[in-house]
């Protein structure tokens, strides 16, 4: 492939769809050379370290070339598609370019800094483009049901086999499906052009994709008449092992957690608390007309308790600026809620949570959960957090030692709420009890401050009327 230098050819570069991202993987192309595109038309889907995003083309024209095939990880600022905007006749489609040739065609123009301007922020210094090695058929691990940390009841993950993919016919219309459904189909190896839609206006739903997988699954053979040798447990695949590429959200999470664990000196403190009165208040709020249509659960009051504790101890809501050698105390709280999704652990946050009333906080929590379930959490929603809550109790776990979210000084882990024998008013009675764990950065949070915050949260949950007297 030769470098395109005509004035009529526009090169569309990989944008930084989330501030500070350096690369993205091309998941799927929706156009081919020779196709006509219009301003705002989605031409491909890419996966970053934060989310799967569809990219629209910013001008009208005819596709001249796709510089990289699906499955290639491309640096931000590198040209990925060439479009002829002259309005001439569409050229005959060319063979798919090799990555090496594409790199020559997409040589970035940079100044002395070696960085290129992109749609949001700036990319980093140019580095080589990589394509994930293909080692034969993949059997990806797919979480069939999303486990959200903000729920009280979780679902065990299931392992699903990949259905054989059927190549889409050339020039076929793009099936209608939301990005999370497209991602699910890709993970399961389902070609959306072969799926029968049942959603409104011909939209393909998650159920349609799962139905296609079930229809394509081979029937189990009849058992042999003679006893067979001892087989592997039914819960395991016949293959001895499965390799899952570390990329996207999982790759970013791993790097962030390693960086946090070996940069910030973690200290974790624990407290076990009687939350019987809080559980009664939850039931009362469910009947309150102010909360009609809103999701009310213990996490709502735990979040409010943490916000009140931060108000009483504002130094906990801070970050460490290594370059300036300063402690940055935040006068706002962007409350992060850790959520486990099929794409990995994400931590979206509620902006200015400190300024919200209890009903407003309930509404924001409900929206956060719904968005995470549907895979629509935006990169912006996961940036700028100041303190985090992780609900390990959703898995029936009593407690844990959570690792700090990078850039934050504290994270609160909430254990399972269980009926336990407890000394109440001098007598042993069954009470609703949970264990809280607070991890904090010991560079800027000493034992006294961390203990005060954890003790305040526990005191509020034991006597929720303190939400009024302490607020």
Structural write-up:
The chain is an alpha+beta fold and 471 residues long. Helix content is 22%, strand content 22%. The protein is built from nine helices and 20 strands. The strands form five sheets. Strands 10, 13, 16, 17, 18, 19 and 20 form a seven-stranded mixed β-sheet that branches. A hairpin with a 4-residue loop joins strand 11 and strand 12. Helix 6 packs across helix 8 (447-462). The longest helix is centred in the C-terminal third of the chain and has 16 residues, at 358-373.
Please summarize the sheet with the most strands: 7 strands, mixed
Cα shape = globular
Quote the distance from N terminus to C terminus: 66 Å
- Structural class by helix and strand composition: alpha+beta
Helix content: 10-25%
- Unreliable stretches (pLDDT < 50, length at least 5) are 1-5, 89-128, 133-172, 219-226
Radius of gyration equals: 26 Å
Helix count from the secondary structure assignment = 9
Strand content: 15-25%
Q: Report the average pLDDT across residues.
A: 78
Please count the beta strands (DSSP E, at least 2 residues each): 20
Element string (H = helix, E = strand): EEEEEEEEHEHHHEHHEEEEEEHEEEEHH
Give the arrangement of secondary structure elements:
Layout: E1 9-13, E2 23-29, E3 36-37, E4 42-47, E5 52-56, E6 61-66, E7 72-75, E8 79-84, H1 99-105, E9 130-131, H2 179-188, H3 206-216, H4 248-261, E10 266-274, H5 276-286, H6 298-312, E11 318-321, E12 326-329, E13 335-337, E14 339-341, E15 344-346, E16 349-350, H7 358-373, E17 387-391, E18 410-414, E19 418-424, E20 427-441, H8 447-462, H9 466-469
Helix pairs in contact: 2-3, 6-8
């Amino acid at each position: 492939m030769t470098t395109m230098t005509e004035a009529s050819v526009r090169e569309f570069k990989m944008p930084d769809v989330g501030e500070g991202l350096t690369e993205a993987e091309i998941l799927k192309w929706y156009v081919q050379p020779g196709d006509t595109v219009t301003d705002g038309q989605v031409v491909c889907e890419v996966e970053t370290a934060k989310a799967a995003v569809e990219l629209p083309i910013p001008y009208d024209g005819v596709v001249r070339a796709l510089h990289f095939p699906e499955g290639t990880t491309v640096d931000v600022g590198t040209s990925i598609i060439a479009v002829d905007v002259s309005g001439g006749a569409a050229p005959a489609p060319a063979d798919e370019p090799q990555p090496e040739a594409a790199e020559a065609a997409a040589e970035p123009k940079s100044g002395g800094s070696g960085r290129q301007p992109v749609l949001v922020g700036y990319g980093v210094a140019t580095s080589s483009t990589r394509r994930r090695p293909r080692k034969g058929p993949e059997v990806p691990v797919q979480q069939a049901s999303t486990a959200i940390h903000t729920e009280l009841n979780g679902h065990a993950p299931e392992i699903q086999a990949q259905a054989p993919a059927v190549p889409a016919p050339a020039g076929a219309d793009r099936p209608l499906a939301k990005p999370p459904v497209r991602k699910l189909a890709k993970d399961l190896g389902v070609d959306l052009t072969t799926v029968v839609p049942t959603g409104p206006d011909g939209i393909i739903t998650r159920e349609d994709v799962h139905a296609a997988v079930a229809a394509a699954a081979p029937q189990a053979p009849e058992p042999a008449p003679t006893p067979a040798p001892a087989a592997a447990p039914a819960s395991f695949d016949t293959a001895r092992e499965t390799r899952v590429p570390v990329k996207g959200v999982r790759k970013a999470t791993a790097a962030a957690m390693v960086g946090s664990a070996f940069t910030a000196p973690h200290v974790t403190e624990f407290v076990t608390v009687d939350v019987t009165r809080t559980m009664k208040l939850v039931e009362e709020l469910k009947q309150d007309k102010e909360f009609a249509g809103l999701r009310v659960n213990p996490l709502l009051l735990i979040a409010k308790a943490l916000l009140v504790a931060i108000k009483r101890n504002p130094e906990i809501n801070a970050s460490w600026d290594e370059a300036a050698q300063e402690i940055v105390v935040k006068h706002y709280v962007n409350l992060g809620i850790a959520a486990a999704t099929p794409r990995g652990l994400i931590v979206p946050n509620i902006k200015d949570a400190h300024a919200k009333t209890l009903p407003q906080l309930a509404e924001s929590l409900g929206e956060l959960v719904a968005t995470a379930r549907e895979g629509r959490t935006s990169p912006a929603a996961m940036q700028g957090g100041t303190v985090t809550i992780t609900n390990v109790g959703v898995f029936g776990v009593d407690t844990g030692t959570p690792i700090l979210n990078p850039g934050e000084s504290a994270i609160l882990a909430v254990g399972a709420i269980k009926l336990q024998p407890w000394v109440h008013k001098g007598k042993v009675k069954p009470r609703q009890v949970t264990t809280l764990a607070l991890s904090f950065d010991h560079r800027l949070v000493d034992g006294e401050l961390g203990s005060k915050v954890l003790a305040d949260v526990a005191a509020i949950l034991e006597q929720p009327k303190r939400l009024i007297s302490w607020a």
